Amino acid sequence: MFNPNELVLEKIRSVEEYDFSTKELTGRYTQIEEPSLKTAAEGTAVTDAMGAVIATFYKAQTGTFSFSNSLFSLDLAASQFGSEKEAAGKVTVPVSEIINIAEDGAATLKYTPVGEDGAEVKYVKVINENNTFGKTYEVSAVAADGKFTLDAANRKITLPANVTGRLFVSYERETDNAVKVTKKTDGIPQVKSLLIHALFHDPCNANTVYAGVINVPRAQLNPESVEISLKPDGKHSAEYKLQKPYCDEDARLFDIIVATEE
Predict the structure, then answer these.
(1) Are 236 and 80 contacting, i.e. CB atoms less than 8 angstroms apart?
(2) Confidence band, pLDDT 50/70/90 cuts, at residue 199
(3) In this prediction, what percent of the chain has a pLDDT beyond 90?
(4) pLDDT at residue 185 in the model
(5) pLDDT by residue (tens digit) across 102-145?
(6) What is the CB neighbour count within 10 angstroms for residue 137?
(7) With contact defined as beta carbons under 8 Å apart, do 222 and 16 qualify?
(8) Among 64, 123, 153, 158, which one is least packed by beta carbons within 10 Å?
(9) Quick one: three-class SS letters along 63-118?
(10) DSSP state of 128
(11) Distance from CA of residue 169 to its chain's centroid?
(12) What angle do CA 249, 251, 255 make, to 5 degrees?
């Protein structure tokens, strides 16, 4: 009979997140660091007249599962923000450019700007030779002092002929090749189910490998403190709060399952 006890835990291979109702996969994270599984309970002490503890009764048992993903995950961020990753249709992308001004005052944008007709770009700033901002120009339907004209379809800005140097331009473009994740102040992470896949070894024979999985029926990302490092060597951390499904008579918080590789 297969009945292991002490095992060597090599690593958590992946964390899979599923919709609580439909069981559809909503996220999968594979670069797992510092995984930790904890449980907790509320204790109520029964004491005698002298204050000595006779017994302690425990209730409201909960758990937490936390980890850091080595890579920034858009799917994980969407789950933490209580939103969905937009990956279909056109996405509006902010653009900031520094472009050269030609001798005739013309400057060509990299992308086609979108927005209010005739004012897809409302303001531009000249960059001085010492790399400071100079004069600001405003869009106009006709050429004038302190104004520029815009041909959005051809991505062309035209300034007065005496303007030279470089130009700072901020505008928006549309593309089908972009994804977007939005954090709203009323966004709350949904309740999910987790499968945490692990790899174990027999301590007496490292060549003997066991597959393990921690099955969590009910988990919700903790939105109280979400930190996403914006450094190249930073990590994307997450913490799930584990609770039993309220209507589950078995009061199951999670299962740890270890099986032989077949």
Answers:
(1) no
(2) very high
(3) 77
(4) 92
(5) 988 999 999 999 999 999 999 999 999 899 999 999 999 998 89
(6) 21
(7) no
(8) 153
(9) EEEEEEECCCCHHHHHHHHCCCCECCCCEEEEEEEEEEECCCCEEECCCCCECCCC
(10) P
(11) 29
(12) 125
Structure tokens at 206: 């490292």
Give me the DSSP letters along 151-212: EGGGTEEE--TT--EEEEEEEEEEESS--B----TT--PPEEEEEEEEEEEETTEEEEEEEE
Which helix H or strand E contains 18, and what residues bound it?
strand 8-19
Q: Which residue has 């062309």 as its token pair?
A: 156
The pLDDT, as a whole number, for residue 93 is 96
Mapped onto helix, strand or coil, the DSSP state of residue 36 is strand
Instruction: Give strand pairing partners of 59.
Output: 42
Q: Please report, for residues 125, 133, 143, 165, the alpha-carbon distance to residue 139 in angstroms, rounded to integers and kept in the order given.
A: 11, 18, 9, 18
| Longest CA span, the chain | 96
